[in-house]
User: Fold these one by one.
Assistant:
Number 1:
Amino acid sequence: MSTKTKNMLTTLLTLGMTALAFLLCQLAIVNDWSWMTSTLKGQLVNICAWIIMAVSLNLVVGISGELSLGHAGFMSLGAFSAIIVGSWLKRGMGMESGELRFVIAALSAVLVAGIGGFLIGIPVLRLKGDYLAIVTLAFGQIISNVLRLLYVTVDTDTGSLAMALKIGSGTPKLPGKDIIKGAQGASRMPQDATFVIGFILVMLTLLIVLNLNNSRSGRAIRAIRDNRIAAEAMGLRVTKYKLMAFVTGSALAGLAGALYGLNQSSLQATFFEYNKSIEVLVYVVLGGIGNIWGSIISATTLTILPEMLRSFSEYRMLIYAIVLILVMLATNNPVIKGWFRMVSGRISDRRNRKTGKKEARP
Amino acid sequence: MAQFLEALVNGISLGSLYAIIALGYSMVYGIAKMLNFAHGDVIMVGGFAVFILMVSNGWQPLLAVIAAMFICTVLGMLIERLAYKPLRGAPSLAVLITAIGVSYFLQNAAQLLWGANPKFFTILDYGNLTVHIGDSQFNISIGKLLSVAVSVAIMVGLSLFTGKTRIGKSMRAVSEDRGAAQLMGINVNATIAITFAIGSALAAVAGAMLVGVYGVQLSPTTGAMPGIKAFTAAVFGGIGSIPGAMIGGILIGLIEILVGTFVSTDLKDALTFAVLIVMLVAKPTGLLGKPMREKV
């Protein structure tokens, strides 16, 4: 089988499995199956948003190999632009259709986050390793800090928007109704995001990331990750390909932000501080760096897990932390890894003996 | 003028606090090559230890701080032994995530043990020093001045320790080249454990000063933001370099206070990070960091 058909099969399989999971959830909602509890139902859109976040961060961290700790910053850019545009369309322009509002809001979110990614990517991608990590973290904090000072209002009669940045004492006085109110954040936004929209966006994200990964550009991106100097010597333009991965990742994070922002009843900029970026990084690393499937599964599990641990009430986050540490130890400790390899080796040995096949083991 | 001087003194004193925390990050990074994200939470544990011993049990402040240093040292070595040592040789991202797990663990354990209500205590409370310049005057808290003295003493002590003693030399050797150090008969595991012990003891001092002198309220997430700032300071000065961490810490503290006083309090975090970015883009390895050599 050629690599091309293999890649296409993987893409189809990933998309198919995601669609299957979606259908299963829809069936459960329609037939009121017992595992689809009301809390889980409320989480479905958020799960979609976190899947998009994890997959897009995996593009940056796994496929492009740059440790970014500011991914939530791009999400917040997307979320707040979508909230501004969505609220403006609903309350200023009187647009009725929620789907249409969402599409326009999401497009502007992608645009803003993408431009943000481009502007931030140019200085950031000159750096390497931990220095790059700290600068992305710094940018994430700057974005959250500035958004915390942002005031936006809309005039419900004329539809005009007014914006101000609070610097110094005294809150800015703007005409019209509040959309975003500084540190108190956004409220009364149109909650246009639905599970169906979320599912479509997840599929779109998967399609974009998998296609990019399997394309000529994707191979270039991975070549640069594996050996920057060798790739440069082969004539690849390092900055261009690194920027391509980074901007795509941030634009998709903006999309996730639109989905998340238009699903909440209120949202503060502090929600998107470095803690959130790190949480998404946990999804990516736990799912397996560079492994798209792993990102989907771990984002889903870890979003649901705190809810499932609710019966442990106050101990749940403690258990979450312990599970996280134990999983990392179990999957990365050389001794435990060796033990797993030994066990799986024995099983395959036995199977080979039965079938009479011989396999070379390293 | 008076306002500027006041900001200058406050900036240096806050900066020396950041420097102590940054030293913990930088030493661990230099020797174990890992970003210890749980360092900020060790600061918080140190703060709580002082609070419990001093306020709840009525210990002398000095005694309480020393006991907190001991507690944090044990905690730091325990964390290293249980969570980081099994991952020696694993990919650095895996270690980073484990450190984040430890950070979550400490925060949530603190929440369960001590609750989320903010707590306060004061140490080194000796009133203010008033300085008159012409007609204007400004106040400096004597506690802050003393904390600067403590920080400077720690920095000098640590420089002497890494420069002159046998253990300090082995620490520098491990940070230079772990493999070669091991071949020269240095016990790498013990050296890393000692580094964690020193870093955590410094974190306890920082925790005590952060709450007791600077009036930051004590809660399970107290250590997170100073931790991130100090980490920034360590990178600013060139991570892995001890003098770099000190200079970086003081500069970050100065920038933060000066920006907060003269530009905008609301924007001080954003502008501090912006200075860091400009600095790193201009000199990608920090102020005193060594340029990385790449082998082809």
Number 2:
Amino acid sequence: MSVAASAKRSSDRVRTVVVAILTFALLAAFVVRLADIQLVRAEALNAEADGRRGVTQTIFGTRGPIVDANGTVLAESVDRWDLTISPRYTRDLQPGIDRVDETLTVGDALVQIGAITGQDPVDLQAKILAELERDPDSDYLLLVDGLDVAQFEAVRDLGLPYVYLRLNPQRVYPAGSVAGNLVGFMGADEPLAGVERSEDECLAAEDGARVFDRGADGTPIPGSMTTRPAVDGGSVQLTIDADVQFQMQQLTQQYTSQLRARSGTSIVMRTDGSIVAVAESATVDPNDPTASDARDRGSRAFTAAYEPGSIFKAFSFAAMLDLGIITPRDELSVPWTYTAPGVRVRDALSHEVKQWTAAGILVNSSNSGMVRLAEPMSTADYYEYLDRFGFGETTAVDFAGEQPVPLRNPANLDAQTQLNVLFGQGIAATPIQVASAYQALANGGVHLPARLIAGCTDAEGEVTVPEVGEGERVVSDTTARQTLEVLENVVTDYGYDTFPIEGYRIAAKTGTAQMAYEDGSGYDPNRMMISVAGVFPVDDPQFVVLTMYDSPQTIRTSGGAIPAFHDMVNLLIRHFDIPPSTTEQPEIPLEWTADQP
Amino acid sequence: MTSLSVLDLHAQPLPAPDAPAERHLRALPTPRVAPRRAPRLVHGVIALAGLAGIVCAQLGLSVVISEGAYRMSALQAESTSLARAEQSVAEELAVLSSPQHVAVAGAELGMLAGQPSQFLTLASTSTAGGPDALHMQVPAVDGFGMYVPNSLLTAQPQVAASVAHVQAAAIEPYPGMLLPAGASAPAIEATAPAAVQAVEPTTVAPGTLLPAPGQE
């Protein structure tokens, strides 16, 4: 081995090493750069790239509809468009430059828009000029909102370059004020009342997005599109029957105006606790909620607690029957007042001492008689019954804004109130609570939770039924049946020939309740709440009906609400083809004579 | 093999000369190497043609794909437009099938509420009638408009005309009524019954039986 050869080898080795180092350095630089682009700055670069050539479109999900028990649409979402305009780019369109055959001035364009939307073109022009006056560089002005499909297509076909039509889905209520009090309505971007609000979780849609690169003419470049689909909202089905609801609203409105009452409320409930109709007057048309007074936009049936008065006697009577302290045939001499140390109870009208049975006391709605009957019953026991009847807590519907009206502690009631609660004074309840308690009497003594929502069907077709809990036995089957049989006599023997419907066994109780002043300073002598609540047919109970009118002027006793109750029961019989009762009403003596053998 | 490795081989300890293994070495016959032929023109042509074919196929494929994109875009536009048409019609249908419209349209056609069903009882071999008449039945529309309003229906020309007609009938001018300038008061005898009719719906006593809509 020569020295020269060894030197050459060493120089070869150095060269190899240098080249290797350079190569690795270059490789490392590339790797670092790659990591920097792909990992570190990936998001920012992607966003920049999308911004340069990519387009993001929002895909609007559709808010779910609200339908009645038969599928009639009560609320649905429809596509509407806002016509927006760029005031500073408004210009006359010229043939050759724009796709028009002859010059189209801004004025002509506004005349055409006005013809489509039904607006005065001069108004539109004034809006644009006012906007330009405010800001000569203004690039945005909402000219017309709520264009429907036909209007949208007509304006789009005008091809005006300074007009942009923006999708703005809106809520419509095809049945108008039918169940408007229950369905509720939407604000600008959130539900404000009713089922819209309480079932928002089911109804709300999730917007999707479509991102793509687009060619010069707007066509998506193949393979560049990524889509996140929108998820449509679920559909809420109510237990309401829109036809019955309409007829009940019509009747409630008729009787409210005939009685010149401040308001009217009617509830129809099935024996299983599902609500068929909640009619109110005045009520709200959710298409135009601002046309109604703020106090008419909700549902008084759920939100307006009042002292129910005599229709409450059915519950104290049932409680006493169930405790075994009375039977319907117990005989009593009933003067029109009842006095004990520190307390005094009077009937609505003075009368001589009557020889009424317990049934007669309930049928004639005697306050003093009820108090006499209830002497052996402790208030605590009575309140336990009221609790089981569903008073003191919101119904299972849990309507938006529903009042629970908690029951007071019976131990804290003064002696007078302890007696008043037996005939529905000194205790408050919402109309739906009263109807729901009558449901327990109709259902053989078992109180079932009130239901308004039949179910929610989501976009995939999966049905969720709201959990309402178990029913609870309030009174025995016998007690419930006996109470209804006594209440049948109210319909036949209370002295109103407008009350009964021949062939049908109907149980009902009337009430003329006093209304407290808003500030709680006692009863307002000029305000009465007249009401009738009932169950029919007694031999096979199917429906509970409650109708009530606030401060009637033409007839100020419960007799004013009786024709309304009759007509409502009548319409239900016709609508559901309910056959006449096959059994006779049992004879229950209401009076007794002392000189019986 | 380089000279370096030859040297390395020599550095290895040699196998022991007295190894028992006996090797039979013999010369293999020289492998017959095929004579190298000169490349022929046809191969080149095939290769180039294949390349061109691939390029053309690629081009054609992307043309087809982009044409498909245009077609898809057009179909999507059509589908959107059809969906809009469907929605618009469904919306109209929902308003037309609303209870208010059915009631007003029925009254306009002179329809009355049907008679309640009759029931056959097997026990007594007789029919049992349904319920009695309503105490109060007023038409869905009267002089004050619809009892159960629906603001969407006011856009319906037929219903709007029907409501306007009923309202106009309810405020038919009577002698002595203040009229807008230009309108003339009607003769007394011609309008007296109309005036009575117009007042009637608002002043009925409770429980009065009224004619069902469309009876007059």
